[in-house]
Write a structure and sequence with these properties.
SH3 type barrels, alpha+beta, 6-stranded antiparallel β-sheet, two-stranded antiparallel sheet, homodimer, DNA-binding
Amino acid sequence: MESSLTISIQDYLKHIYELTEGGQNASTNALSERLNVKPASVTNMVQKLAAAQPALVEYQKHQGVTLTKEGRKAALEVIRHHRLLEAWLVKTLGYSWDEVHEEAERLEHVISEDFERRMAAAMGHPLRDPHGELIPTADLVMPLEDSTPLSALRPKQKAKIQCVKNADAELLRHLEDLGLLPGAQIVIVDYSSFDHNLTVKSGAKVSVLGLNITGKIFVDYPG
Amino acid sequence: MESSLTISIQDYLKHIYELTEGGQNASTNALSERLNVKPASVTNMVQKLAAAQPALVEYQKHQGVTLTKEGRKAALEVIRHHRLLEAWLVKTLGYSWDEVHEEAERLEHVISEDFERRMAAAMGHPLRDPHGELIPTADLVMPLEDSTPLSALRPKQKAKIQCVKNADAELLRHLEDLGLLPGAQIVIVDYSSFDHNLTVKSGAKVSVLGLNITGKIFVDYPG
DNA sequence: AATACAATTTAGATTAGACTAAATTTATCG
DNA sequence: CGATAAATTTAGTCTAATCTAAATTGTATT
C-alpha cells in the first residue's frame, strides 16, 4: 500500500511533468502521443484525475493540464525511481545505457521507498543517471542543470559531454560507437545553425546532423 | 511485450502451482484465500483462464484446477523470478530475510528475462534463496529437495537448518533472534509428535512449539 | 436414504481504463 | 470576417477483473 496511485496515474503524472517543464500546459494531444493512448481517452482520464486528485492536477477544458506543486513532487518521485534504477542496473548488472531505459520503465512503478533509499545509499547518492540526466533529490527537488546545449557553443570551444537527452536506443548505440558518451571531451570544429560538426578528443570527426539526431546533447560550460 | 500474461494470471499460476505441489487439485476456495479474492471471482477467473489458455490450465467443475506441464513451467518462471530477486536484494541492497518477500512479490511480475539472467549470473547461479528455498533452474525445472522435515529427526540428532518455509515476517524475525537461520547447526533435544524442542549450537534452548510455528523448518540430513 | 452444512458455481452489477464516432471548440488564413 | 482545418471533448461501447446474493452441487451424518 506504499502508494495509493495506480500505475497509469503515475505515468500520467510523469508525462505531464515532462511536457510542462517549459512552463506551458500539457495538451491532451501531446499526452496522447507519449502515453500511446487515444486523445479522447486522455481527456477522459485527465478529467477524472483532476476530479479525484485536485491536489495534484489542474485541468481546464481546451487548456490542457498542469501539475500543482504537490503533483510535481509526485511526478519527481517516479522520475527519481526511474533514474536511480537506470544508474543501479548499469552499475550492478552491467546493463548498457541503451538497454536500461525499458527495464527501468517497468520497475519504476513497483519499487518501494525503501528500495529507492537503499539504491541511492548504495551508490553514494548519485547526482546523474547513465545518460547524464539529473536525479531528483530525496526530498523531491529537481537540481538545476549547470550545463549548456550544444547549440550554444562556438567553433574551437572545448567541452565535455554531460548529458544526452531523449535519445532512443538506436541513437544511443550510435553515439556510443562514436565515443560520444557523458564524460567525453569534445571540440567544436564547425558550427552553423543545425549543422553541428564536432570532434571527439580521440580525433574522430563526426557530423551530429548525420546521425539524424532527435534529442539534444548537453555539455558542460567549457572552462 | 516479453510476456503476454497479465500480472494477475501470473499470480493465479503461481498459487495454483503451490497448491498442487502435493499432487492434489487446487480448489477455488483455497485459491480464493491465497489471492485475497472472493471464491466466486476465482471460479470466474479460472474458467476464463482455462478457456483462454488450455495449454496451461485444466479445470473441471467442482474439481478445482491443475496445471499442465507447460503451465507448471510458466509458474516456475514466476517463482524463479521471486527467489532470484530475494537473493539479489539481500545480497546487493542489504535487505533482511524478513523484509525481502514483499518487495520481490511486486518485482517478480515486471522484470525481463534479461534481468533474470543477469541476476543469476551475477550471483553465480545460486541454488537457494535467502530462506533456503530451492530456485527453479533456468530451464524451469524445480530441483529435488535433498533435506528432511524437522519432524523426521530423533532426539540427539545433529542437523543444519537448510530452509525455512512459508514463514511470515514476524516469525522470521523471531527465528533470526534465536539464530535459527539457514546454515545454523542444531541438536534435537526432545521430540514428541508436534512438540519439537531443539538446541541451537550456541547452547540456547528453544521450543519450536513455543513459537507458535506455522511454517516448516527443513534441515539437512544429519551426517 | 434424508437432511443439513459446506463448497462451488451462476447471475447480474460495478468499476476502471481504454476505444470509436460524432460534436464542438479553437486557431488559421485568405 | 468567415471558412476550413486542427484540436479537443462528448457520448456511448467494450473488456477485464472484481463483487454480492442466490442457486446449486457435493459430502457427511445419523
